[in-house]
Amino acid sequence: MDAFYVELNKPRKFKLLRALSFLIASAGIVLYLLTTRFIGTKTIALLFFLGMGMVVFNLVTRRKKDKRQVVVAQIVLVSSMALISAVIYFLMTGRADHTFFRILLLNALFFSNAVVYVRSKTEGAPYDIYALTFALSVCLLILIMNLSGLIELNALILFVPTVVKTLDNVILNNTKVPLRRVGLNETIHSILYIILFCFVFH
Q: What is the pTM of this model?
């Protein structure tokens, strides 16, 4: 009993109860959608196998002792999670059209940006340069897709903040202390808000 209590002690006990509550709630929602015929058994089977695949992939690639999970593995996982938003669109409209793939792509790129940025904050160099390069590459991809007529240019609003934050991170990690005290963060953020204002209202 003592060993069992230690295993369930906080925060492990809280995490276990929270996971169990999410599992019960998810099962209830899926059962309701199935009984009301909002979704079919094929869709449930697809989501089940995708979910189990994510769990297995996460277990295989999860961080070992003194090592963090590989960035590529985290990007694969968040990209799989991005499929949820696209599936919601499919369930609402019954269509797997261009909008479906736009939702999937933009969500995957957005969360992948976040993964690389967080790694740059926790690991420092050279991940700060990687994060800035990744953020700029995503914006370049959006521009190319806009020129190809696949995505509207205002999708850049989703990714400009990450470019600014990663650039800010690179500057702060590669400058002397006095420069950090001149309000560099506030200046960059103000410029960002001005740009976003021009995008939205003009």
A: 0.66
